[in-house]
Design the sequence.
C-alpha cells in the first residue's frame, strides 16, 4: 500500500470509484436551487433520485470498476451514509446531503498526501465521512502517507452573495464572462473555499479554476499549503464554471485537451506553448443540452471528462465517438466505457474516481515562465 500521484496520466494502479446509492436532489441552499418540474422536482422540492436511475448508474459504475480491476488496478469504494437526513452545524441547517458518486470533488492526491477539500455547498459539508474509513486504512498501511483536511468552512450566509442567481442570470454573455474573469461569482472571500475537482495536477504546477465553488481565498490557502508547488488561479470563458475537468484536461506530458467553447486566458495558453505543450480542442459532444439525462446538472461537455490509465491509454464515455476518434488520432489506446447513466449523480469518468496511486515521481513540466505564471 502506497499513496502516490503527482499528475493525471502516470500509470494508474489504485483508485477509488464512487457509488450512486442514496444520491439526493439536494434541498435548496444559498447557491443551489434545482428546478426540474417535468421530472417531479420543481424548485424547492428535493428527495432521492428514482430507484431505476440509481440501479442504472450503479450498473455502469460497477462495470467500470470491474474493467479497471481487469487491467490490474486496485479499486476501492466509499461508504454510503444516509444522504436524505437533515444536517446542521451551529451556523446553519440543511434539509439534505447529496451523495458519494463523485469522490474527485472531495479528495485530491498530491504526491503522498491526500487532501480533503473544504467544499462550498452545505449539502456536501459532511461528504468526507464517506471516505474516512478508506483514508484511515491507507494511513495505517502506508507509513509515508500524509492525511490532510483543509479547514472546514463555516458556510454562514456571509459566504455567499445574496440574491446572486437572479442578478447573474439577467446579465448578458459578455457581462457574465467579465464576472467569471474577476471571480465575482456566487462566493464571497470571507473564508477559503474550494472543491478538489477544480485542481488540475501537472507535477510541480497545480492549476486551480476560480469558479462557482472555488474562490481566491481557497487558491491562496492551497498556495500556502503546497509551498513547493506553483499554484495558479485560472479562468475560462465559461459562464457557469464548476470544476476544471470538463474544460482543461492534461492527458500526458506535452498535451492538454481543451473545451474550445470556453476560451482560456492568453497567459495560460502561452505558458503551455512556451513549454512545448500542444493544446488540442476537444471534439464536440455527442449529446445536446436537450439530450442530457433527466435530473442532470452537468453540461454536454462531460464528454471530455476522461480518465487516463497511462500516458497512452484513456477511458472515454462509449457514446462519444468523435472524442474517441480524436484521441485515437493522437496515439491513445481508447477504452470505451458506457457512463451517461451516471451523469445525474454528479459527473463523468474522471469525476467518479480519485487516484490513490500512480507510478511515477514529481517532475517539472513547465521550466519556463510566462506572464503571471
Sequence:
Amino acid at each position: 500500500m502506497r499513496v502516490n500521484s503527482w499528475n493525471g496520466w502516470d500509470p494508474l494502479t489504485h483508485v477509488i470509484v464512487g457509488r450512486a446509492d442514496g444520491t439526493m436532489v439536494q434541498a435548496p441552499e444559498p447557491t443551489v436551487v434545482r428546478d426540474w418540474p417535468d421530472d417531479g422536482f420543481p424548485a424547492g422540492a428535493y428527495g432521492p433520485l428514482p430507484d431505476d436511475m440509481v440501479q442504472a448508474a450503479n450498473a455502469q459504475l460497477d462495470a467500470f470498476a470491474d474493467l479497471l480491476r481487469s487491467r490490474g488496478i486496485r479499486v476501492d469504494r466509499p461508504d454510503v451514509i444516509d444522504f436524505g437526513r437533515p444536517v446542521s452545524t451551529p451556523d446553519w441547517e440543511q434539509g439534505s446531503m447529496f451523495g458519494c458518486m463523485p469522490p474527485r470533488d472531495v479528495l485530491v492526491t498530491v504526491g503522498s498526501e491526500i487532501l480533503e477539500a473544504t467544499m462550498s455547498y452545505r449539502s456536501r459539508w459532511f461528504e468526507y465521512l464517506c471516505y474516512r474509513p478508506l483514508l484511515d486504512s491507507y494511513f495505517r498501511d502506508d507509513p509515508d502517507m500524509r492525511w490532510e483536511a483543509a479547514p472546514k468552512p463555516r458556510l454562514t450566509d456571509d459566504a455567499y452573495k445574496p440574491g446572486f442567481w437572479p442578478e447573474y442570470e439577467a446579465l448578458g454573455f459578455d457581462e457574465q464572462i467579465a464576472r467569471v474573469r474577476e471571480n465575482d461569482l456566487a462566493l464571497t472571500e470571507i473564508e477559503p473555499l474550494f472543491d478538489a475537482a477544480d485542481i488540475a495536477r501537472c507535477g510541480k504546477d497545480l492549476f486551480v479554476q476560480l469558479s462557482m465553488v472555488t474562490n481566491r481565498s481557497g487558491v491562496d490557502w492551497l498556495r500556502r499549503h503546497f509551498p513547493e508547488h506553483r499554484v495558479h488561479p485560472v479562468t475560462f470563458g465559461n459562464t457557469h464554471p464548476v470544476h476544471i475537468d470538463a474544460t482543461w484536461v492534461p492527458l500526458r506530458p506535452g498535451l492538454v485537451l481543451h473545451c474550445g467553447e470556453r476560451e482560456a486566458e492568453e497567459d495560460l495558453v502561452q505558458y503551455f506553448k512556451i513549454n512545448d505543450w500542444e493544446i488540442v480542442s476537444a471534439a464536440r459532444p455527442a449529446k445536446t443540452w436537450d439530450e442530457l439525462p433527466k435530473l442532470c446538472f452537468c453540461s454536454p461537455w462531460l464528454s471530455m471528462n476522461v480518465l487516463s490509465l497511462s500516458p497512452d491509454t484513456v477511458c472515454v464515455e462509449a457514446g462519444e465517438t468523435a472524442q474517441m476518434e480524436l484521441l485515437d488520432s493522437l496515439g491513445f489506446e481508447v477504452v470505451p466505457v458506457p457512463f451517461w447513466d451516471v451523469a445525474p449523480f454528479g459527473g463523468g469518468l474522471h469525476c467518479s474516481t480519485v487516484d490513490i496511486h500512480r507510478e511515477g515521481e514529481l517532475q517539472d513540466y513547465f521550466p519556463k515562465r510566462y506572464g503571471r505564471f
Observations:
- The chain has one domain: 12-358.
- The CA atoms of residues 54 and 180 lie 34 Å apart.
- The longest strand covers residues 12-17.
